Structure formats: C-alpha cells, structure tokens
C-alpha cells in the first residue's frame, strides 16, 4: 500500500527559445593552414564553412545571459519568474559556484534553484528531460535550460582532430506548464566502453601538480573522430526512432529533426537510416556554427524557426550525443518566435 498524496502531474512544453552567437565568425581558411588542412577538406568531411569564437574578454556567462534574456522575454516572463535553472556545459572553468548560480546573479534572480549538468553534447537534451519532469511534478513552474559552451578555451588550435570542429555559443529555452503534452518521453543512456573517444585531459589536478619540465598541456578536449563517427552513425538512428515512437508519432507525422550539430555527414546518415521523408525539416546549423556541444541543439532550433516560422507548434525530434559516450533524444512541440 502506498500513501495517497495529492495528484500533482501536469503537462509541460518549451515556451520559448533564445540564442547567442559570438560576433567573431572565423572561416575555414583562417584555421586550415595551422593544421595542414584545407577549406575543401573541412567542408567535404564535416559541412562546416565557418564558426563563431567568443573574444578573450567574453565569458560563457556573458553568452548564456544574452541567450537567457531573449528566451525569458520571448516567453513573456521576467527573470524573477524563473524558479529553476539547469545549465548544461562542459566548459565552465569553475567547479564552484556553478555556472547556473552565476547566471542567476546576473539575471538579478535571488530565489531560483540552480545547478550545472555535465552530459557534453547530449547536455541540452538531458536538461530538457529534467526540466519537463520538474514542471510536470510541480517542483517548478518555469525552468530555464541553458546549453552553453566556450569550447575555444578547451581546444588546442593546433590539434588536427578538433581545431576545425569546435566553436562557441549559447542557447536557452524556458520550459513551463501547458495544456497538451509538449515534451515526449526521453530515450537516453550511456556507453562507458567508449569513454576514451572524447576526453578532456589531463585533469586539472595533474596539470596543477606537473613539473614544468614534464611539458604537461592544458586540459584540452581530444577526440577519436572515427570511433565517434561510427558509433553515432550506427547507434543514434534507433534512439531517434524509439523517441518518435514513444511520443506516439511516426516518421510521416514528424515535422522536424534537430540533431546535435557534430558533422553534416552524420546528420545525412541518421536521416537515411531513420528513413525520414522529405517533409521533415532538417536543422543544419553546423555550416556556419560548427560544433558547439551543449549549445548546438538550441542554436539550431532558433535558426530553424527563423527560417521556418511555420514550424511553430509542430513536432521536432531532438537528438544529442557526445563525450561519455552519452546520448538523449525526445520529441518536443516547437515554441513560437516573435513575429
Ligand atoms: O560532438 C561530439 C561528437 N563528435 C562527433 O560526432 C565527431 C565525429 N567524427 C567526425 O566528425 C569525423 O571523424 C572527423 C570530421 C573528426 C574526421 O573525419 P574523418 O572522415 O573521420 O577523417 P579520418 O580521421 O578518417 O581521416 C581521413 C583522412 C586521413 O588521411 P589518409 O590516411 O586517408 O591519407 C587523415 O590523415 O583525412 C586526413 N585528415 C585530415 N586532412 C585534412 C585527418 N584530419 C584532417 C584535417 N585536415 N583536419
């Protein structure tokens, strides 16, 4: 027998989205000579033409604040209406206090619950899952989910495997109560066998303790590109299909697909494996934004809605995957953008 508490369940949806891209757009031609590459190779292998880098005096919190203010205002709310903040990131350079509490201070909000979430490029989708459930369980009313990264602080500009991929930016959504079900069940998981495929190394502690003569490098992100590529191509389409089914939809009734922007060829392969029809709009923000990890899905959502405002209120499959390796996918109802 269980205690019979008051029924609290209610539905939730994404009320609004906001995005911030740093002003400095860097073309492949500026990066290629340093890593013995070319604009042609980078475009063919990834689809990336250019990406944005934050300036040295522009912090992760600066970018997140800009995206958050847009999302909060588009939701018709004020910063004090937010009662929980989930900040998905792997590039905040402090363990304490969290990026989420730092952002709250900037927003002048003195009461919301706030914490960071570490799930790399799947972080935003993990955040959407948690925020939807917090609202559904009436633990919170309006949850701000941020996906933000300043990857340029953790990328070796001379690393041939990463320098042309990673970029900076921040995206935000506000998740609140809704009449209908606006967030489908999340299909998520981790595959620890592939823990070495994407890593930030050495640890900050090893870096701190190292003797200068050991020539220990700053903990930049390293990546075994082919391992991640193969895993994403074979393992992620079934996750996407399960999320569509769990939401009670089919590939024919889905309106949009907004995957993590890691590589245009991975996106092509997932679209093909899932057999998505031409009627499904595909987000391809990677071309001018690169891979912004936790920020990539909300940035791509914002860009897609700018191009296709008719998608407001329609369904979109979100699918994030990255270091861990971890993944999460869910179908959501797309929010409106202001006219
Ligand atoms: O966000 C987290 C999730 N991350 C991802 O999903 C990343 C997944 N991986 C990838 O996107 C791709 O593996 C990369 C874009 C990173 C690399 O593309 P690839 O097609 O897997 O390249 P590769 O490592 O198989 O190398 C192919 C060739 C090699 O030359 P040979 O042996 O065929 O002569 C490499 O030496 O390309 C060469 N190469 C390069 N050439 C120019 C490797 N890196 C570069 C480079 N520029 N930067």
Please provide a written account of the structure.
With 339 residues, this protein is of the alpha/beta class. The protein folds into two domains: 11-178, Thiolase/Chalcone synthase (Peroxisomal Thiolase, Chain A, domain 1, 3-Layer(aba) Sandwich), CATH 3.40.47.10; 187-333, Peroxisomal Thiolase, Chain A, domain 1 (3-Layer(aba) Sandwich), CATH 3.40.47.10. 31% of the residues lie in helices and 24% in strands. It contains ten helices and 14 strands. A five-stranded mixed β-sheet has the order 1-7-6-4-5, sandwiched between helices. The protein has a five-stranded mixed β-sheet with strand order 8-14-13-11-12, sandwiched between helices. A two-stranded antiparallel sheet has the order 2-3. It is globular. The termini are far apart. The model has no long low-confidence stretch (mean pLDDT 96). The protein binds oxa(dethia)-CoA. The site of oxa(dethia)-CoA has 20 residues, from α2 and α7.
Could you state the order of secondary-structure elements as H and E? EEHHEHEHEHEEEEHEHEHEHHEE
Strand order of the largest sheet: 1-7-6-4-5
Shape: globular
Strand percentage lies at 15-25%
Compute the number of strand runs. Answer: 14
CATH topology of the largest domain: Peroxisomal Thiolase, Chain A, domain 1
Total count of domains: 2
Give the termini distance in whole angstroms: 52 Å
Which molecules other than protein and nucleic acid are bound? oxa(dethia)-CoA
**Helix-strand makeup class:** alpha/beta
Q: Could you name the CATH class of the largest domain?
A: Alpha Beta
Alpha carbon gyration radius: 19 Å
| Biggest sheet overview | 5 strands, mixed
What's the CATH superfamily of the largest domain, by name? Answer: Thiolase/Chalcone synthase
**Low-confidence spans: pLDDT under 50, at least 5 residues?**
none
Number of helices: 10
Please give the share of residues in helix: 25-40%
Q: Architecture of the largest domain in CATH? A: 3-Layer(aba) Sandwich
């Amino acid at each position: 027998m269980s205690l019979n508490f008051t029924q609290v369940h209610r539905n939730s949806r994404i009320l609004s989205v906001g995005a911030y891209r740093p002003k400095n757009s860097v073309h492949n031609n500026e990066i290629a000579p340093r890593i013995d590459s070319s604009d042609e190779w980078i475009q063919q292998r990834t689809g990336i033409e250019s990406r944005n880098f934050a300036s040295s005096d522009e912090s992760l919190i600066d970018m997140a604040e800009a995206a958050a203010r847009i999302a909060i205002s588009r939701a018709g709310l004020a910063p004090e209406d937010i009662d929980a903040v989930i900040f998905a990131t792997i590039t905040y350079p402090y363990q304490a206090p969290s990026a989420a509490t730092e952002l709250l201070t900037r927003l002048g909000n003195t009461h919301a619950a706030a914490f960071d979430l570490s799930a790399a490029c799947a972080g935003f989708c993990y955040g959407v899952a948690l925020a939807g459930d917090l609202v559904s369980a009436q633990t919170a009313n309006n949850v701000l989910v941020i996906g933000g990264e300043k990857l340029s602080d953790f990328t070796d500009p001379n690393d041939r495997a990463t320098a042309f991929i990673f970029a900076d930016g921040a995206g935000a959504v506000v998740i609140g109560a809704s009449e209908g079900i606006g967030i489908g069940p999340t299909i998520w998981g981790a595959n620890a066998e592939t823990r070495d495929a994407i890593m930030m190394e050495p640890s900050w502690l090893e870096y701190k303790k190292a003797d200068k003569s050991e020539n220990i490098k700053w903990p930049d992100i390293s990546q075994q590109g082919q391992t991640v590529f193969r895993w994403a191509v074979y393992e992620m389409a079934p996750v996407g299909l399960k999320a569509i089914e769990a939401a009670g939809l089919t590939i024919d009734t889905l309106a949009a697909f907004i995957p993590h922007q890691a590589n245009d060829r991975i996106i092509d392969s997932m679209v093909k494996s899932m057999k998505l029809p031409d009627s499904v709009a595909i987000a391809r923000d990677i071309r001018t934004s690169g891979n912004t990890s936790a920020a990539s899905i909300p940035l791509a959502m914002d860009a897609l809605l700018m191009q296709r405002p008719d998608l407001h209120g329609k369904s979109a499959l979100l699918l994030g995957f990255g270091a861990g390796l971890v993944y999460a996918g869910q179908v959501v109802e797309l929010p409106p953008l202001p006219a």
